[in-house]
Design brief:
- Homodimer.
- It contains 4 helices and 18 strands.
- A hairpin with a 4-residue loop joins strand 13 and strand 14.
- Bound molecules: the ligand N[C@@H](CCC[C@H](N)C(=O)O)C(=O)O.
- The ligand N[C@@H](CCC[C@H](N)C(=O)O)C(=O)O binds next to helix 2 and helix 4.
- The site of the ligand N[C@@H](CCC[C@H](N)C(=O)O)C(=O)O has 17 residues, from helix 2 and helix 4.
Amino acid sequence: MSAHAVPVEKYHGTGNDFLVVDADAHTVGDRAAFARAHCDRETGVTADAGVGDDVVPASATGRRGADGVLFLSIAERFDPTRVVMTLVQPDGSTASMCGNGARVVARWAHDRTGDREFMIDTQAGTRRASVTDDASAATIEMGVPTFDPARVPVARGDDRAGEPLIDEPVAGLSVTAVNTGVPHAVALVDGGRDDPEGIDTYDLDAVAPPVRHADVFPEGANVNLAAVVDDGTGGDGSGDVSDEGTAVIDQRTFERGVEGETQSCGTGAVAVVAAARRLGLIAGESAVTRPPGGDLSITVPDAGHATLTGPVAHEFSGTLPVDPR
Ligand SMILES: N[C@@H](CCC[C@H](N)C(=O)O)C(=O)O
């Protein structure tokens, strides 16, 4: 390996794909430039970056580039093993939390250590994580979603400055603002993916940017469309909570930092379920969200951490230039 090359692993969680760099072993001086170059969907990393037997056909996503670079630092002296996670996005920005990225971190740490339980240190706080026996799926504690306008953050600039922004018009969509580690705007729309007039009829790349950049979101926001296709009431209609099933919500997310729609967004999935609960659109605390890249299982209890569970997979190993210019 050249002195100017760094080993990388590529993983994805429901199509949200990430390059992973072991930040203890390898220094990347300009992380933003590295992410901008190698995440580019036109000119960025491919499975050809792999070396020897590690090269496998780009699997479930099979796409060039990535949704970000995870710079990871692992400390096995702790029990459970701790991993410090920093996500640098395709535009060079750093995100304080990433749900699917954290699932990738758990799988990467498992592949290194064989452990199944981890603590992941993010800029949004320390999160517990675990992988299944076969490591094909990971669960992350996602913290407590907040609608507090000071913490989303939301800046109304009027006499409602202290009120949460719940199902209100913002730049053409009716949105609910929630922070699940990063800021999200959630617009509940009619009709799921199977509805010819439903969620997939929206041109997300057109409708999301005005919300993402709206003045009411001083730090910007990820923008989610969500359609409740099963409210989870199920049962016999008696209202008995033991009859409550798992709700099903179709989800699409336009991500800040990617500046486009991703196949899946974990913090977005939790935001969607938290918003649906807040609006009284689903019965219980559990839901499956269905972003384009695959299903995610979410819990948002009345008290305590939300959780995010879903599949995670390794795509390939390789090396990339540290300085891509
Ligand atoms: N894809 C992530 C979210 C990453 C952060 C986001 N783009 C932001 O800048 O807020 C996830 O799975 O949560």
